[in-house]
Amino acid sequence: MEQGLTLAQYTSEYAGTDPQRQAVAAAIDAIAEASVELSDLIGHGALAGITGQAQGSNNADGDVQKDLDVRCDEIVTAALQKLPFAALASEESETLVLGDPNAPISVAFDPLDGSSNIDTNMTVGTIFSIIPNQPGVAPFTAPGTVQLAAGFVVYGPQTSLVVTVGDGVDIFTLDREARVYRCIRHKVQIPKDTPEFAINASNHRHWEQPVRDFVEECIAGADGPRSKDFNMRWIGSLVAEAYRILTRGGVFLYPGDSRPGYADGRLRLLYEVHPMAFIIEQAGGGASTGRERVLELSAKNIHQRAPLIMGSTDKVDRIELLHNDPDAASRTAPLFARRGLFRV
Ligand SMILES: O=P(O)(O)OC[C@H]1O[C@](O)(COP(=O)(O)O)[C@@H](O)[C@@H]1O
Ligand SMILES: [Mg+2]
Ligand SMILES: [Mg+2]
């Protein structure tokens, strides 16, 4: 695919004459169109009447809803409602929006990810997952492996849309003058050896031992079992973290922890964890709960949470090993101590 190709050309090439693909392509186009409006709104902030203030309401997961959460939800929902869909699941809506039960697809989305940071002028985004509809089967009950397409938009210094239709990952950047997305990277592959990790370290005391062991290994740097100095990043915005991993590599962790309500972490399976896992795997990376592949999970309710550990496979594999083999950390620890001794 040529650089500069527009998203509309890409989706129409993918759609061909297959009705399900046409529905997927139309949904991607609709979200992209809505995101151009969202990009304007977010870019203008207070000048467009957006205060970033709480609305006095909470979403289904208990998060405080901001004016921009509500506005973004209205815009994305309205764009998708013009198309044939069986069901829509939004972070900001307690229940599903039901459409035509015989339509070929359903869509789950997080209209505004990272919104707790909106008043600090940080990167936020929109995440989506498109799944096939099977008439007679409850929507959003299948594992993440059934996804037909997934993507996210980052509203950063550039507005960019990352997408997979199951054949690699492509990135498009918004050409603000022409108001179209143009391809800037085709078949993105996650760099393999980047020594970077991202986790909210303020939760250290609540983590399980395998997560502590991994972070200890990273912090020990060149003196530790990984024999490399690591850099730490935490933006607090999943879309920005995912974009960084696709560009620069490394690993991101939002594990389960012992805080009340956080046994499965913070991120929601259908519209955050499944789409990110699909994208990261399609870019040659791994996505795990720490114990199993995230795409094998099925949701029992639409706002269900799931742990997410994603990034380059060597790091995700190491974290899985630390979870699944209780002796893995102690096997490397003596070596680490010995090397320490040799150094003094
Ligand atoms: O504040 P915490 O616990 O570090 O959580 C940060 C995470 O929460 C999120 O903001 C959750 O998404 P929403 O903003 O859509 O609720 C992620 O973007 C981010 O990775
Ligand atoms: Mg989110
Ligand atoms: Mg959100």
From TrEMBL:
Entries under PROSITE patterns matching the protein: FBPASE
Cofactor: Mg(2+)
UniProt name for this protein: Fructose-1,6-bisphosphatase class 1
Annotated substrate binding sites: D113, G114, S115, S116, N200
Location of this chain's protein in the cell: Cytoplasm
Pfam families, A to Z: FBPase, FBPase_C
Protein's organism: Rhodopseudomonas faecalis
GO BP terms: fructose 1,6-bisphosphate metabolic process; fructose 6-phosphate metabolic process; fructose metabolic process; gluconeogenesis; reductive pentose-phosphate cycle; sucrose biosynthetic process
Gene3D superfamilies attached to this UniProt entry: 3.40.190.80, Fructose-1,6-Bisphosphatase, subunit A, domain 1
Location of the Fructose-1-6-bisphosphatase class 1 C-terminal domain: 190-323
Coiled coil regions in record: none
Residues that hold Mg(2+) 1 according to the record: E91, D110, L112
Binding note for cofactor: Binds 2 magnesium ions per subunit.
